[in-house]
């Protein structure tokens, strides 16, 4: 354990985003030899809204990276602003108690955050990182994944071998596909367009999510980041994009130029071209996240939370769980599908209840009239805003939307 031998390692981690870097970091801490591969060179951008919530910050603390994280350029967030297709708006402060104990949420640009995490993983003595390496697929022997092949930065084909391969290569994961699991689930896939502006008129301590008519159940967002910038974007259900032949970039421009938002952007300057990227959010039914000789984490395993779209913290959390379970399997000398299925069980025990609870918001968000009514009512009532705040603290609280007392409050109590 712990001595990389040329092209053979205990574990190959494909993808050095939040999932892969966290996984490699924990495996490195445990002394396993790890090859961490990414097709990009860090620091690299990633199309995202840049929000880091308490799932993310708690893992950073667990990793011992908290003080270094606090030195990154960032924007503190203490509230969320939601609006409905009918234009009703509600401001939801994050839980004061939680802010007091755990700090606020932070918006940190992914270029900075992912570069920071990647360097932390790379610093581990037994982690070898290779940037500019594109994984083309897994290598199998007798049905078991035993390594990967791909192209290095000079376009040379190379193969690497390991007892376990971790697929942390994002929402289009080639590791998942080549191992026989499709990471893209059409009905839960969102297509997003994102851009940075300087000079948008906004509350810099709040993230804004506007569920506009024609965009709902997707949303238009304005998330302030460091340096007076705002991360601005729109997320659309991919099935709507296809059915209605929507162009996400044009949709974003249309919303920014609309009478409702135009004045807020009148002094704003776009500082990068619009980027487009997709993600499949988590579902309510368990899917396989592993097989003989491999595990999947982060977007490759659809760990982003349904509706919320939060994926960075959940990706890191899955990377940590993957490292623990892969470590256990390696110690036991058993990397069979049965042994690695423990990872699925542990991960699902956490994300299953979150996804099921968040799916219960589906009815609300997909029915504009009900959504309008609930937000209009909630705007004048502290207890409904409190529920929204509690959901931000723990997604499992979303299940409370169906509790008799909530329904009573919503329907007129
Ligand atoms: C528009 C948008 C907005 C979002 N906003 C938020 C937000 O505000 N907060 C939040 O928490 N989550 C957000 N998410 C979700 C979040 O971005 C993802 O869930 C998160 O990035 C998942 O991390 P990951 O490490 O699994 O994958 P990624 O971050 O995608 O990292 C995968 C890595 O794998 C590498 N890679 C891919 N293919 C290969 C290959 N073949 N060979 C080698 N390397 C490869 C990539 O270069 C990349 O570095 C958003 C997503 C989108 C699309």
The value of Rg in angstroms is 21 Å
Give the termini distance in whole angstroms. 62 Å
The CATH topology of the domain at 8-65 and 110-185 and 282-358 comes to: FAD/NAD(P)-binding domain
Shape, principal axes of CA atoms: globular
Oligomer: single chain
* DSSP helix fraction: 25-40%
How many β strands by DSSP? 19
The CATH architecture designation of the domain at 8-65 and 110-185 and 282-358 is 3-Layer(bba) Sandwich
What is the H level of CATH, i.e. the homologous superfamily of the domain at 8-65 and 110-185 and 282-358? FAD/NAD(P)-binding domain
Bound molecules: flavin-adenine dinucleotide
Mean pLDDT: 94
Given helix and strand content, the structural type is alpha+beta
Which properties best describe this structure?
8-stranded mixed β-sheet, binds flavin-adenine dinucleotide, alpha+beta, 36% helix, FAD/NAD(P)-binding domain, 14 helices, 413 residues
Concise structural overview:
It contains 14 helices and 19 strands.
